[in-house]
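seq:
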Amino acid sequence: MESGTWRLLISMMPLILYLLFILYSNHTSQKSTTSSSCSLLPHDRYWIVSKRIVTPHEIISGAVEINGGRIISLVKEKDWHGQVKNVPVIDYGQAVVMPGLIDVHAHLDDPGRTEWEGFPSGTKAAVAGGITTLIDMPLNSFPSTVSEETLKLKIEAAKGRIFVNVGFWGGLVPENAFNASMLENLLNAGVLGLKSFMCPSGINDFPMTDASHIKEGLSILAKYKRPLLVHAEKQEEIELNDGVDDPRSYSTYLKTRPPSWEEAAIRELLTVSKDTRIGGPAEGAHLHIVHLSDSRSSLELIKEAKGSGDRITVETCPHYLAFSAEEIPEGDTRFKCAPPIRDAPNKEKLWEALMDGHIDMLSSDHSPSAPELKLFAEGDFLKAWGGISSLQFVLPVTWSYGHKYGVTLEKLVSWWSEKPAKLAGQDMKGAIAVGKDADIVVWEPEEEFDLNENHHVHLKHPSISAYMGSRLTGKVMATFVNGNLVFDDGKHAPDACGTTILA
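struct:
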């Protein structure tokens, strides 16, 4: 062979090796996808067909094509038949196909308190409830996520143990609020935003903040264009009448956390939220008030701030929309949470605000614990650990209790998918649209079921959930995460192949 030919072959070797590598990678990728235990489907490419697919613009009868974990086409029924060429089809008939739920407020307590919940049990419950992405709160695990080092512990704990996509909020606490490098290291390490408490959190390594800490946090977050989530209650002195105020009565607990606590905290927040306006020193930051329960003065303050141009959003939770204080049985500490569930007229106003768009979105605030911390035998609302355990049930609860208020499928997608995706900075999620991640829930809105011993519950401690014993409408049939069928007809995929989301 002539020397010129040899030189040509030698010069082309890197290209030849690269092409061989690509061919080998594609072959092994396809092979591993079809035999993967991440999915109950042996396919990487397939169609989902339904008479009710909720898209950003309309509900269509048609088909969604999935390939490699993404939505690659979306067509109406009259157009799609000619496009199927040896691609598997899953026909869900009249079932609703919509984007998977994104829960921006969940406590999975991992690492450190996995006897309360943990990544495996919590994310199994999530996919059984149609949740495909959740953002884990920085407290109730141990240690709390308040530094780059503690975030790494979270990420390590999640590896190979999550069935959904999981992101993380970091904590804004006095320790790091005035330490710009510490906060920036935490944000650079990948937290999607920060969370703070304006009252004692009950967790020793997660102390409360005030407006000065929040102002500093917002100034740092402005550079990253990420949100600050705030538990907005400001503690005031409360006097109980011993011997008259029974600790087994929910009304006694209600007195200890009145609506004025929420109002006082929000008034203080609004002294700094104006910094987030266009041209303000914290422009680009975003203030988000979690689990609003007061639908009166507190909500009016938020509406005024929005009208003034403050970058502020607010969520509430299904338990504030499903229950009212008057209905809570004596000593039933499953219903204890903070802020508390308030009276029936307050609940009606929350629904009105949600339907009118003044409340932006919903979250679970799934906050489990070991059953013994609920003090079921004593039924003492003042001493029992608070928190509603709800992760698996939020979709049917919202749908069931929302019937009388005119809840639509489009509203559900807005509250549980589109707006949470925006808050968490997840542009590839929250909608069934071409190019988006194939995170999808399939469910039967008309099917009723009882939450009893015959219903398979995936929460670690079903006994602590206030929803047990309820009759609900809206049964989840299947959940797809990144194109993998991870839950189908009560069964989970063998392996936990959810991904961690880092900013």
